[in-house]
Each structure stands twice: as structure tokens, then as C-alpha cells.
Amino acid sequence: MLVVVGLVAVGASLLLPGALASATDAVLGGTGAAKQVAWLIVVGGAEILADVVGGVVVVRVTSGAGAWLRRRMIDALLAQKTKTPFAEGDAVSRMAGDAVGAGGIVPVVVQLVSAFVISVGAIVLLAVLDWRLALVFLGSIPIALLLARSHLRNTADDVLTYQRVSGELAARLLDASAGLATIAASGTADQEAERVLKPLPRLSLAGRGMWRTQAKMVWRAALLLPAVELAALTAAGFGVLDHRLTVGDVLAALGYVALGMGLVTQIPLLTTVSRARGCAQRVAEVLDEPIRERGRLGLLPGSGTLTLREATVEGALHPTTLTIPGGTFTAIVGKSGSGKSTVVSLLGGLTTPDAGSAHLDGRDLTILRPEELRAVVGYAFARPHLLGTTVAEAVGYGSWAGDTAVRTACRTARIHDVLTRLPQGYHTPLTETPLSGGEAARVGLARAIVHNPRVLILDDATASLDTVTEQAVLADLPARTLVAVTHRAALAARADSVVWLAEGQIRAIAPHHELWRDPDYRAVFTEEAG
User: Fold this and answer.
1) Pairwise CA distance, residues 224 & 257, whole Å
2) What pLDDT does residue 148 have?
3) Rounded CA gap, 447 and 387, in Å?
4) Could you tell me which residues come within 8 angstroms of residue 21 by beta carbon, excluding any fewer than 6 positions away?
5) Hey, how many other C-beta atoms are within 10 angstroms of the C-beta on 385?
6) Judging by DSSP bridges, how do beta strands 505-510 and 377-381 pair with one another?
7) Which of 203, 340, 429, 510 has the highest CB neighbour count under 10 A?
8) Is the dihedral of CA 32, 33, 39, 42 positive or negative?
9) Which residues form the ABC transmembrane type-1 domain (predicted)?
10) Distances (CA, A) of 393 to 350, 372, 405, 427, 529
11) Calpha distance 91→282 (Å, rounded)
């Protein structure tokens, strides 16, 4: 539809000077001018209608393309799971700004192609009217091409730099927003503001470069158009004196010159093209990020045995081999940065190893159908993100659990009494639910329990609970494979086995009471407690 509207606008634009010339000559000649005036009105009305409809279609095309690109980026980011290289703020910037910028390229290209067709058509019609006028006009084309070349060369780097620095600013701002309470408590607002705004000079430099180039292009194009019109008008005047042209022909010639210079007046759109190209490059970086092929095989029968075979994560975990028997309780301990979360992320299939493999009951996690894997592996985090409209939806998120199952899971997580005291109980909107950190953690724990998974992984999910509540929760969990990251000796003591990590590799695997003899092991809990 955009192309059709563009063709109508091109045709009307090229016909309008001729229609104006015919109507003018007919009126000045004193003959009947009704047909010529009517034709002028029809052509002018068609051009106006095409402009109006084109404006609406441009908005629809731009918004539709932007939404399509945004959806593709969201799908790609979710498919990358925890290994995405894009910071949260940068990803938001790419989805919010770059998707729209790249999505607007089609209307801009159609507009530039239309301007080119109109310019070529105007030159041809000008030559038909008087070849001398066409020669005068053609003398301006080399200058126009030099302007366009200079504009593109000078603006490309500034545009891309501006977009990249904008994404960096967004990432820093989002990080700071997430830690507002910490910033306020530490009294570091000024330092944090300085950190967030550190890329601002580079942004300003790129922005000023863009606008300097744009301003230079605008005034040069603004001088070129009247200069060419003056030259054409002078040549047309001699044509009138020689009785080769009429007054109407002079008006038509000026109209064709203006149309022929339309491509020059559209040169600032090349900045938009350059910006759209930069946006498309940033969108493509997200879409081109490698994603492992989706698994197609189902689960094998089993009790939830987890296995790592030479599993490696670059910069976080050395080649690691580990087996956790089904139905057992295993604690993962180690100092900060030792690789605890990396190990459980591999065991639960949230992260794919760079080398080696992870298995559940003998089946490689990478070839399992994702929906089956997520149905049998429950995950709870220390600071969970609660998703859903109401509290009940937040607990049942990602499952088909009904009201009874949701309430049972909340009782197990020791959060039921808190939720029933809310204004609308379990149906209280999540945005109106004031939950402390510990209460939110228990809701997240209930969300993991409600799946009734074969394997339950607690990534420090009970850290905010008091010891008594933690023991009560663990005692009520149904028999299943349980893996818990912890910094508490009491919880490690309850486990059947403890995996002790140090500097990205397993240092020992044994019951807590055996490892406790090692002073370095005891120091793990002393450091964490401190």
C-alpha cells in the first residue's frame, strides 16, 4: 500500500506543473478554461490525498515493523537464557529505540526512491518543454552528488557512536535504578550519578557532530535550490522573448525545477538512513547471537539423577565432573566467586556449558525438549523476580497449578499466613503487595515447589529465612532430588552430601561432618557469615 500511495503521489507531482501551465494559458488566453482548471483541481487533490494517506500508512508500517523486530529480539534474548552478552539496560535500549529506528527504513527508502523518480521525470519533462532548460538544470547535479557523498561520509560514524553510547547510558541507569536502596543507604548518590553519566561527553560529542553535519547539509541545499531556480528562470525568460515558451510554460518550468531538486532537498533523509542502518546493526547483533538448537527428545524415566561430565564455563568453572544421585539432598558450598551458582545453573539447564555436558537421568539437557525440562526442574532464587498479575499467578507462574496446589505450596514455603492477610488474599494485585525480601523469597520458593518437580534447585533461596523456618521448610519438602547453594553450616549439615567448590573447581565431595575437620572448609562459613 505504501508503494501504491507513493506511485500516486509521484504521478500527481509530475502532472501538476503541466496542469498548472495549461490552466494558466487557457485563462490568460480568454478561451474556455473549465476543463483545464478541473484537471488542475483533480491532480492537486490526488497529490493532497496521497500525502494524507501516505502519512497514515507510514505510521502503520513503521510501528508494525518496529513491533515485529522487537518481538524477534525478545525471542532471541529469551532463547539466549543466562548467557546473553547484552546488559539489561542495553537490551532495553535496543528493543525500545533501535527496533523503531530500523523499522522506519522502508518508508524512508520509498520516499527517497519516489524523490529520485520525480527528479528524473521532472528532468525529462523539462527537456520536452525546452532542452536548454534541461541543460541548465543538469549543471547542478554534480554539485548535489558531492553534497550527498560528503554528508553520508561525515555522519555515519557519529550516528553509530551516538546509538552505542545511548545504550551504555541506559545500561548504567538501569543498574543504578535496581540498586537505589543500596545507594541511598551508602550515601554514594553523587558518585553513582557520576558513574552513570560518565559516557555523557562522548554522547554529546557524537550528537554535536551529527547536527553540525546536518546543519551544513541544510544550508548548502537551501542555497543550491534558489540558485538553480534563478538560472532556470533566466533561461525561461529568454525563451519567452524568443516566443518559444508561454507564461504557463515558465510556471511549469519552475515547477519541474523544484521537483528535480526534490532529491537534493531530501538529502537530510540520508541521516535517517544512516541512523536506521546503525539501529539495524544493533538489532542484528542480538538476532545473530548464536543460539543452540532446541532439544527434541523427551525425558527418560528416573529419580532425578544429575550429572556433569567435564562441564566447563569459560571464566567461571574449570572442567567439572559430578554426579548427584536421585532422591538425595546435596549442598553446594564455597566462598564468593567459587562457582556455586554456575554449577547449579548447569545442573538445572539454565546455562549450557562451553564444553562438556550436563545430564538428567542419563539424558543430555541440550537435547531435551525445553518444556519437559522446565516441568521437572524447579528453581528458587535468593532474589526472585515475581511475574504475574496477582499473588496467586506469581506462585503458579509457568505451571498449570490450580488454587489448591498454589495454597499447598505456599504452606510448605511458610508464606500462606502472610498472603491470606493481604486485602484480597491470594488475588491481591502483585503491584499492591508489600513483600519484604524474605517474603518475596518464600513466594519464589513456593513457585518452584508448586511444579512438584523431579529436581528442586535452591540457589541460596533460603538465605533470607531464619534457621528455624528454613529447617521447617526443608522438612516439609516431598522426597525429591534437592540441590541447595548455601552459606549456612546448619543447612550443609542436613545434606546427604556436600560439594565444596573453590576457585571454579571441586575441592571435595563428602558429608558435612567429615569436611568440617578441614579448617579451610570451616573458613568458608566464617567468611560468609562475616
Assistant:
1) 12
2) 65
3) 10
4) 246, 248, 249, 251, 252
5) 9
6) unpaired
7) 340
8) negative
9) 1-276
10) 22, 21, 12, 8, 35
11) 10
Strands 317-324 and 306-313: antiparallel
Alpha helix positions (H), 288-390: 340-347, 370-376
Rounded mean pLDDT of 239-268? Answer: 79
CA 98 to chain centre: 7
| 306 to 312, 361, 454, 480: CA distances (angstroms) | 16, 6, 11, 12
pLDDT higher than threshold 50 for residue 409: yes
Identify the band that residue 244 occupies on the pLDDT scale cut at 50, 70 and 90.
confident
C-beta separation of 45 from 287 below 8 A? no
Q: What is the pLDDT of residues 324-346, one digit of tens each?
A: 999 999 999 999 889 999 999 99
Question: How far is it, in rounded angstroms, from Cα 162 to Cα 402?
Answer: 49
Helix, strand, or coil (residue 242): coil
What does the pLDDT read at residue 530? 42
Instruction: Answer yes or no: is pLDDT of 131 > 70.
Output: yes
C-alpha 243 chain-centroid distance: 64
Give the distance, in angstroms, between the CA of residue 359 and the centroid of all CA atoms in the same chain.
32
Cα–Cα distance measured from residue 509 to residue 527, given in angstroms and rounded to the nearest whole number:
20
In this structure, how many other beta carbons lie within 10 angstroms of the beta carbon of residue 502?
17
Half-sphere exposure of 457 (CA within 13 A, CB side): 25
- Rounded to whole angstroms, the Cα distance separating 109 from 58 reads 11
Residue 460's nearest CA partner among 481, 476, 437 is: 437
Match 523503531 to its residue by C-alpha cell. Answer: 100
Cβ partners under 8 Å of residue 318, min gap 6? 312, 504, 505
Other CB atoms within a 10 A radius of the CB of residue 87 amount to 16
Q: What is the helix (H) or strand (E) element at residue 151, kind and residue range? A: helix 141-178
- State mean pLDDT over 439-457: 92
* Number of separate helices (H) and strands (E) present in the chain: 23, 10
- List phi, psi (to 5°) of 305: -75, 130
Q: Three cell numbers at 82?
A: 543466562
Which pLDDT score is estimated for 116?
Answer: 85
> pLDDT (tens digit, 9 = 90+) per residue, 46-82?
999 999 998 899 999 999 999 999 999 998 888 887 7
